[in-house]
Design a protein that fits this description.
This protein has 437 residues and is of the alpha+beta class. The chain is built from 12 helices and 19 strands. Bound molecules: flavin-adenine dinucleotide.
């Protein structure tokens, strides 16, 4: 990486990592100092979450010069705050994808998504990432008996494509999960759990070892085309000149690229974590260490961490949480599911932003030569963003003939300025549909 000039050496205003279970328990972050020196690189990656870091790692492994710029610290966004459920699925079921895209385009996409959890656990093993990986599967659970056949049909669609699945009735769910609340469900054996901030930091270390430069505290403020290159201005004063740029800013996308922020709804998801449960209380719940989510439109997701804390996540509001009262719905859900635990004490409450797309598909755009952007994993980003990063790296390295994800134009959501109202109306509407069953 060649440096060309020195810029004003002033500290950038870095937003500290918000308090969470993951921030309190992750291994220390590797050094990612802010960039004050202008430089030239092959690929500039903007955003230090799973998408950006997986792209950087896989590109650096091809020998390319890569520089990641992250406004705060890697993992500051959704990647360091999520539920840690590694689920290799899209919102759409496989047969629905075939209906939407045709078998020729859909089956390679389905296969890529299906292997995306393998990719995460392989990277963890290959790079020795210390992030409490556990591959015990994901339970998708239904309260309503009427919804169980549809869930089993979904499981069968994956089973036809080789996924290890188990169909579960009320009794089987009660035995595994430790609650009588569910009518049935299925187990997706490809899935698992991680400590997501620890995984993010492990990706940083792996990318650095492969030769990538990773800088926190450096926000890109403008991008301009200069001949065959892009020049990024930053809030530290450094300028980065790159042949190719990847924008991986997801739910935290700002005005950097015209219209990009308006392609997604940025909604908050909230999580609470209890104190570690004691002995037999913990053992009777999610007995094999499975992760779980409900099948409602406004789904709840829950799991235990490595120390027996129970985590419950679900819908938040458009705005960031104001205090513990904004998490009361999640605490109520947990206590309704597991009344045998009695009143629970909560150690952590936190939130982060997901990016929701109109078609519930992840979006990849290439609106100008040398620019790729990927966002919108709709709350399923651990496996999907890691996979997107790998495939974007291959595409930028010239090996992307078989790029499995659809590449679409940047299309704004109509009346996007009203997203706060869309989200509130969506929550109210989905909650009504969920109540009607
Ligand atoms: C509470 C919550 C729970 C979730 N649970 C799960 C789960 O259990 N399983 C699952 O698979 N997915 C889950 N998700 C979704 C998953 O976390 C995301 O899909 C994924 O982390 C997105 O990764 P990313 O790299 O695209 O974006 P992010 O991790 O959000 O990273 C984007 C980064 O871009 C940076 N940035 C923005 N603008 C600039 C700029 N101009 N210059 C430099 N940097 C910039 C931001 O600071 C941020 O760090 C959850 C999300 C949340 C919020």
């Amino acid at each position: 990486m060649s440096s060309s000039q020195f810029a004003a050496n002033r500290p950038a205003p870095v937003m500290p990592l918000p308090p969470s279970l993951w921030a309190a328990t992750a291994p220390p972050a590797p050094p990612t100092p802010a960039l004050y020196e202008s430089l030239t690189t092959d690929v500039l990656v903007i955003g230090g979450g799973f998408t950006g870091l997986s792209t950087a790692l896989h590109l650096a492994e091809t020998g390319a010069r890569v520089c990641v710029l992250e406004a705060s610290e890697p993992g500051w966004g959704a990647s360091g705050r999520n539920g840690g459920q590694v689920n290799p699925t899209l919102k759409h079921d496989p047969d629905e994808l075939v209906r939407l895209f045709g078998a020729a385009r859909a089956e390679p996409l389905i296969d890529t998504v299906s292997r995306s959890a393998d990719l995460v656990f392989d990277l963890i093993a290959r790079h020795g990432i210390d992030c409490q990986p556990l591959r015990s599967g994901w339970l998708q659970l239904s309260y309503s008996p009427a919804a169980v056949p549809a869930m089993h049909a979904r499981a069968e669609q994956w089973a036809r494509r080789g996924a290890p699945v188990e169909l579960l009735d009320h009794a089987a769910v009660a035995r595994r999960v430790g609650t009588q609340a569910f009518a049935g469900g299925w187990l997706d054996g490809r899935a698992g759990a991680i400590q997501p901030l620890a995984y993010t930091r492990g990706l940083v270390r792996a990318a650095q070892r492969a030769g990538a430069a990773v800088h926190g505290g450096t926000a890109v403020t403008a991008l301009e085309r200069h001949g065959s290159h892009w020049v990024a201005a930053t809030d530290t004063g450094a300028r980065v000149t790159a042949g190719q740029v990847v924008i991986a800013t997801n739910g935290y996308t700002g005005p950097l690229w015209p219209g990009l922020a308006q392609t997604v709804l940025s909604a908050n998801s909230f999580i609470v974590a209890t104190q570690p449960l004691r002995g037999s209380d913990a053992q009777g719940i999610l007995t094999q260490g499975e992760t779980a989510s409900t099948s409602q439109r406004l789904l709840l997701y829950f799991r235990k961490d490595a120390h027996g804390r129970l985590l419950m996540g679900g819908r938040g509001f458009f705005a960031d949480p104001r205090g513990p009262q904004d998490f009361a719905h999640l605490e109520r859900s947990l206590e309704l599911l597991f009344p045998q635990l009695g009143p629970l004490t909560y150690e952590y409450r936190w939130a982060g932003r997901i990016a929701i797309t109109r078609d519930f598909m992840p979006h990849v755009h290439e609106p100008a030569p040398g620019i790729v952007m990927a966002l919108g994993c709709n709350g399923r980003g651990i496996a999907l963003c890691t996979s997107l990063g790998k495939h974007i790296a291959a595409r930028l390295a010239g090996k992307g003939e078989d790029f499995p994800y659809p590449v679409t134009p940047v299309t704004r959501i109509p009346l996007h300025g009203l997203q706060r109202f869309y989200i509130a109306a969506g929550v109210a509407w989905y909650s009504l549909l969920d109540k009607l069953g």
